[in-house]
Amino acid sequence: MGRTTAPLGDAESGAPRTVTVLGSTGSIGTNTLDLIGRNPGRYQVEALTANSNVETLAAQARAFNARLAVVADPAHYGALKEALAGTDTEVAAGPQALKDAAARPAEWVMAAIVGAAGLEPTLEAVNRGATIALANKECLVCAGELFMTAVSDKGATFLPVDSEHNAIFQVFDFEQRSRVDRIILTASGGPFRTWTREQMVAVTPEQAVAHPNWSMGAKISVDSATMMNKGLEFIEAHHIFAMPVDRIDILVHPQSVIHSMVSYVDGSVLAQLGTPDMRTPIAFTLGWPRRMEAPTARLDLGTIGTLQFEAPDETRFPALRLVREALKAGGAAPTILNAANEVAVAAFLARRIAFLDIAALVERSLERVPHAAPTSLEDVLAIDRDARAVCADLIQAAAA
Ligand SMILES: NC(=O)C1=CN([C@@H]2O[C@H](COP(=O)(O)OP(=O)(O)OC[C@H]3O[C@@H](n4cnc5c(N)ncnc54)[C@H](OP(=O)(O)O)[C@@H]3O)[C@@H](O)[C@H]2O)C=CC1
Ligand SMILES: CC(=O)[C@@H](O)[C@H](O)COP(=O)(O)O
Ligand SMILES: [Mn+2]
């Protein structure tokens, strides 16, 4: 994979590093801009993008003097144009504008759009050989082989942002890859870690998004609650580190202090630790290849006292089993799983289905959509569309 040291402008002494933030209005996007804002003169913002949150996007574009602001939903073009009147920021809207934004020559691109909607814009940045800080794990779940092949073929530099994968990246010995025995992905267990299935029947969106350790967007928070997030991260780790699935473990660790571990053939286990604040992994990628200051609380293990560990429970959290089965089935299964999960999570957040229906709908979608392996981006997008339609039909049929 592309752990190259492709040159980035020396942000500490030379010209500002040019950066684009895809999904700038979200949780990862705002944390990224928080770090950029603390380092005046070190970064020049090329493009910022959102889906529909014009107010935040316009405020960010003004604050960071962005060259371009893009809203994916074209219905919001007029409002964005008006909000940025009198500034030097160009304004654009729609899916093609999103891809064009990613194609502009920023050295460093934060990929923080949520869901498969981020795949095409992120690939634009990969295809021009940029440094990609990847938060958008769904890219790798729905198109992992295609994505990592493009990283390698185009000479892009790939830096994982997801806290677990960033942790692994920090302790993974790429020069002695054959000496790596296992990857150990830690999981908080989410807000329902100790709940029975019966207790989970009546879970509300408010309860599901209340993650015990992390402050994140709604979709990933629900994924953590179903533990689908850990399943998606399992697939993500498989692709990023080219690790066979039988050498990746999931370990529940409720405190989210150890962000993940790598175990070596000599019995050494290396881990990355820190307080749960995404500004640490984002700073790792923004400063790359040098570490930069992040304003996060420092880890105080003496005060924490005890770290707990538990085995994951696939019976209470069937998403973990579905991911294992999807990886075994291969072909289109991970793409279908991801698309169905996105549709089901959105329906849950809209109070159209119950919490336990999410995994059940993913399972039924996997049974119904054909599993032919995608060999191109067009294939991936077609499978993604089909799976979304099947899952939406299942929801509709259940409601009728
Ligand atoms: N939050 C976290 O701590 C972590 C997040 N991640 C991953 O990072 C990604 C982003 O997560 P997070 O920041 O929490 O998500 P948020 O929901 O907070 O933000 C999502 C961003 O994507 C934009 N967006 C949403 N839908 C579309 C679309 N169809 N087209 C274009 N842009 C869109 C949103 O714009 P708008 O505001 O206008 O809706 C927003 O800028 C996810 O893949 C998540 O799994 C990984 C690890 C940790
Ligand atoms: C911050 C981050 O990387 C999230 O993906 C986080 O890991 C979610 O926590 P769990 O899925 O372990 O509950
Ligand atoms: Mn994570």
Q: CATH class of the domain at 17-161, anyone?
A: Alpha Beta
Class from helix and strand fractions: alpha/beta
- What's the N-to-C terminus distance? 47 Å
Global morphology: globular
CATH architecture of the domain at 17-161: 3-Layer(aba) Sandwich
Q: Please count the helical segments.
A: 17
Helix content: 40-55%
Gyration radius, in Å: 20 Å
How would you sum up the major sheet? 7 strands, parallel
Extract low-pLDDT stretches: 1-11
Strand order, sheet with most strands: 4-3-2-1-5-6-7
What is the tally of beta strands?
Answer: 11
Strand content: 5-15%
- The CATH topology of the domain at 17-161: Rossmann fold
Write the CATH homologous superfamily of the domain at 17-161.
NAD(P)-binding Rossmann-like Domain
Bound heterogens, unique: NADPH dihydro-nicotinamide-adenine-dinucleotide phosphate, 1-deoxy-D-xylulose-5-phosphate, manganese (II) ion
How do the helices and strands follow one another from N- to C-terminus? EHEHEHEHEHEHEHEHHHHEEEHHHHHH
Overall average residue pLDDT: 96
Features:
binds NADPH dihydro-nicotinamide-adenine-dinucleotide phosphate, 4-stranded mixed beta sheet, oxidoreductase, 400 residues, globular, alpha/beta, single chain, 17 helices, Rna Polymerase Sigma Factor, Chain: A, binds 1-deoxy-D-xylulose-5-phosphate, binds manganese (II) ion, 7-stranded parallel beta sheet, manganese ion binding, Rossmann fold
Task: Briefly say what this structure is.
With 400 residues, the protein is α/β, with parallel strands linked by helices.
